[in-house]
Model the fold of this input.
Amino acid sequence: MSSISETADTTETTLNLHLPDTRPWWQVWARHARNKPLGAIGAVFILILVVAAVFGQDISIGGSTIVPGFSPYPASETDIINKLAAPSWPGHIAGTDSLGRDLFSRIIFGARPAIVIGIVATGLGILGGMVIGMTSAYAGGVTDLLLQRISDAFQALPPLLLMMTLVTVLTPSMTTVILVIVIFLIPGTQRVVRGTVFSTLENTYIEAARTIGAGPFRIITFHILPNIMAPILVIASVTIGGTILAEAALSFLGLGANSAQNPTWGFILFEATQRGNLDRWPWLAITPGAAITLIVLAFNLLGDALRDVLDPRLRGTGAGA
Done:
């Protein structure tokens, strides 16, 4: 009797795993947050970054401010009398730099280029990788061979060195940085997409769709795309953090999208190292370094949690964040 009872419980649990969840979306996400607390913490930090990027500085249309920002000071406002001031409350809660500019305000202003470059470059890189990966896997043959050898050639190059070269040739700007990062995101993304498409093409419903006359466009749209969206979402969440880190590295080398109105975190860190004597003024490097570290870590934690939630093979195992 006990074995029959255990079998029934196992069958019921298995059936429940495959039943659609009819609870409100907020209850579903609350359950995921409880099961993956590190992923939830990462999502909170990302939300803070987005809020700082959108509302940290004034939102203006046609030269008129429609929503004032919550940043305590303008990013370029100098105060020589209070230069290299230590963190204090109230006042400059993260200290000031060698020109008396408030570091906390500069970090807030730097959130906008970080999130714009992170999202736009990642979105374009993944879109390009999806197109190339699906084309390569679905076409096969010579097309697949040619695309994969080109991808191998790009992945064999040292990314940072080539990004520095391209940015220097094309003149540093936000558009240039996005373009250069996209070039290096496409090869890795297309490989993941290609492998997922290959495994999807082996399913019997693909052959059934072909038998009833479905063309490549319908098969890709209705059968392949839905099956690759879960890994794509995971890749995107992790890649945004890597993209922000790549932009920070370029900015640290003086090749990023830095401007007086929107200083990048990497350039703020570069200015800190130029001053020297960080043992006397450690906040110059700690503030931008902490911002970069926390955001990259947040996106990685969120990516790990999404992988476990969206991958049926890991769901319910307690693996990951």
Q: What stands out?
A: DSSP finds eleven helices and two strands in the chain. Strands lie at 59-61, 64-67.
